[in-house]
Specification:
- The protein is of the alpha/beta class.
- It is 43% helix and 11% strand.
- The chain contains 12 helices and 10 strands.
- The strands form 2 sheets. Strands 3-4-5-6-7-8-9-10 form an 8-stranded parallel β-sheet. It has a two-stranded antiparallel ribbon with strand order 1-2.
- Helix 2 packs across helix 3.
- The longest helix has 27 residues.
- The radius of gyration is 21 Å and the shape is globular.
Length: 352
């Protein structure tokens, strides 16, 4: 088992705070102010979230108003979205401009694939992932970013990258919580000395984690909340979590004042059932949360073939209105097919 994390880890030579606050769906900057007041100095951002400009303006004003807090005191991680994978340099410049800073602390590729800029879901089949990574390496060499990494990369993607890169990824951000522990991927990254961070550490879309009797028992024993126990488990097993709650920032920040014992860790480990909220790297509509990994992969494969068919059949840019409606129809059809197939397999008791 990995050693428990401290307040910072060294990721490819850069000190990265392990108490990190997520900014997805955050439009009220009072939440960011509350996180700063609670002690957070690492913030996880993304182009996809659409709030870079708000965050940039907030941090600029906060640095002016608070003489004890400057840009060097805050660690900003952001992610290049799939539609910008062909030109990471332009994406980085956009991030710098919107965030009102001259450098990023960590820049990640959000997904191990690209999407065509003028299509809703069509995969960019000509994209060379290694070329996108080489562009990040160049940005780091120029000082525009201090460290570079990836998000939602599985072992097969990391193997391709590690075989070709000059600079190894500092971090891989993945979905991880007690109901989706991703043991093989975690072990691989730790073996390759790639730091790990966890989005969705509280399995927010389904209540079985925070309502778990196992977590409740540990929380009662430790004088904590079930949420705190889930976050502490993640942190103590070598993956720093990225919670987002504005109402519980202070208690979520408390990751270093106590430890879970072997019995606690075993009880949490028993909750794993591969229940993913986000099938992030493959299916772009909604989520899959099934115990049957083979079923999940079969749906991914079917989806990839269908999106390839859309990309091949649609008129190339500019995308026509008819093409947009066609793509929307395919998206809805895929979602309905997934729902019907899931209900069928559940009826047959092939998945839960």
């Amino acid at each position: 088992m990995a050693a428990p994390l401290g307040a910072c880890i060294e990721a490819a030579g850069v000190a990265m705070p392990t108490q990190c606050f997520g900014t997805m769906n955050t439009w009220d900057m009072e939440a960011i102010g509350g996180a700063l007041d609670a002690g957070y100095r690492h913030f996880d951002l993304a182009m996809l979230y659409g709030n870079h400009a708000l965050l940039g303006a907030f941090f600029e004003e906060r640095f002016k108003a608070d003489a004890s807090l400057g840009r060097s005191d805050v660690f900003l991680t952001t992610k290049i979205w799939t539609r910008h994978m062909r030109d990471p340099r332009a994406a980085c410049e956009e991030c710098l401009r919107d965030l009102r800073t001259d450098y990023l602390d960590c820049l990640l590729l959000h997904m191990p694939f690209g999407l065509m800029p003028n299509y809703m879901t069509a995969p960019d089949l000509a994209l060379d992932l290694r070329a996108a990574w080489a562009a990040l390496e160049a940005l780091q060499a120029e000082g525009k970013v201090r460290s570079i990494g990836v998000s939602n990369f599985e072992v097969k993607h990391l193997e391709v990258l590690l075989a070709a890169c000059d600079v190894r990824p500092a971090v891989n951000q993945i979905e991880r919580h007690p109901c989706c522990q991703q043991g093989a991927l975690v072990a691989y990254c730790q073996k390759e000395r790639i730091a790990l961070s966890a989005y969705n550490p509280l399995h927010k879309r389904r209540p079985e984690l925070v309502d778990s009797p196992a977590l409740a028992a540990i929380a009662a024993k430790r004088g904590k909340t079930p949420t705190q126990i889930a976050l502490k488990w993640c942190h103590q097993t070598g993956v720093f979590p990225i919670p987002m709650s504005r109402n519980h920032a202070a208690e979520n920040f408390d990751l270093l004042s106590y430890e879970l014992d072997a019995a606690d860790l075993a009880a949490v480990a028993a909750l794993d059932n591969n229940a993913r909220d986000y099938n992030a790297g493959f299916t772009h509509y909604g989520r899959l949360s099934h115990e049957s990994y083979a079923y999940q992969r079969a749906l991914e494969t079917a989806h990839d073939y269908l999106t390839f068919a859309i990309a091949s059949a649609m008129p190339r840019p500019p995308l026509s209105k008819l093409g947009s409606l066609w793509a929307l129809g395919i998206a809805v059809s895929l979602g309905v097919a997934e729902h019907v197939l899931t209900k069928l397999l559940r009826a047959l008791r092939l998945v839960k």
